[in-house]
Automatic annotation (TrEMBL):
Native species: Anaerosalibacter massiliensis
Protein name: Na+/H+ antiporter NhaC family protein
Key word Transmembrane present: yes
InterPro entries, sorted: Na/H_Antiport_NhaC-like_C, NhaC_Na-H+_Antiporter
Domain Na+/H+ antiporter NhaC-like C-terminal: 149-457
Amino acid sequence: MTLLKLSPVFLMAGLMIGGINALLAAPIATVYAAIIARVTSKVSFQDSLEASVDNVKEMQLVFFILMMAYAMAECFMATGVGAAIINIALKLGLTGKTVAVTGLVVTSILSVATGTSWGTFAACAPIFLWLNHIVDGNLLLTTAAIAGGACFGDNIGLISDTTVVSSGIQGVEVIDRIRHQGAWSIICLVLAAIIFFGVSVGMGLPNVKGNPEEAIDQVPEEVWGVLQEKNASAVTLLNQVKEGVPFYMVIPLILVIAVAIKGVPTLACLGIGIATSLILGSFAGTVTEITQILGKEGLIYTGFADAGSWVIVMMMWVGAFGGIMARMDAFAPISKFIARKAKSVRQLMTWNALLCILGNAALSDEMAQIVTIGPIIKTITDDNVEASEEDMYKLRLRNATFGDALGVFGSQLIPWHVYISFYVGIATAVYPLHQFKNTDIIKYNFMAMIAVISIVVLTRTGWDRFIPKFAMPSEPEVKLKKKELAVEK
């Protein structure tokens, strides 16, 4: 009976591993879950429907945030915000010793601005791989640097779909999530930058300076076609980098980060980013007519359409799936197992982290891991931890960070993951002088290594208390419920 109740999770995982998109896998698994709930727990289809709708209602704000996030990402890519970030960094001058660490920093900032690791890698790979060629840097070191940096914003970016979805599943505000993990994320980035530079020096790489325009000119014609197909926004970005945009186009990103730190609600932050990028873009010449903004193919329309075309619909089905699974208490066996094994709240939370890593490896997709494992670790925490609402909220923040960080950064260390396959495909297409392998992305991906290892170690040891705002409440403020009560529940 236990395995039968969990079988909808196995079905969803199997469908995704088999190549079925989450947009189809989620509704199939939801319908199957309703049937299983009827068979195992005598839950009527009407009750399953009500449980689904109630769970989806709790995610309504997430849907609005996703639409605004996608719209802001489009605006930032098209108006020159992303290009300004890259050009400012490249003006500093790149050498073989600095190309990798610069790539790490630029992709980190750009991924925060655009909210997409895939788009960031597609946009930056042609620049940095050919720059690396010009300055005679280490190809694999630079590739790993931009791969790890591209994931930075996907883990902490205000407009990242993985950040929004993982926060929504745990029922926490995106702004609170960013504050919770902000210092930890920046520390990971700084440590990775130091290591990348140290390894570059240790390799004895040269000090020859490179020219970004020369690098873009060296991109083969067929590569432009690949980029147009894979990510059209990357082509726009590259052209803006070559032609140049005013440096003041970084102001929208600075404003968004500043108001987010000040505690302005997420939707308002996104609105400020969209408005300022469009206004400044009109002065910079990247926005020339109103149809670019409000037309059928306009930036805001495109952003809303992209969000609604799959991610919001997928989230609704995932919400419905979670509602039915909760209605028949499907995750109780896993919760009981961890409750028996864990001797403290920290041990329980470490188990949650390990579940995310295992789920990511099994599903080979970070979003699939977030939506599949997320409800499980939420249930485990809610069922087994006794604490004030404030402290429970902090634990949910950590769970949201687990799902996102161990999904996005964890993907960089799993050779068969779809993330790695995408990066290898893009890298091979834009730099055909080398036939990339999946292990090439992993070998020097210090950013991913530091993030994955540190969050597990800090959670288990309690050393997270030394990082501002990242401390997780510990005993006796939080404690495990008495075993017999948890098991009975």
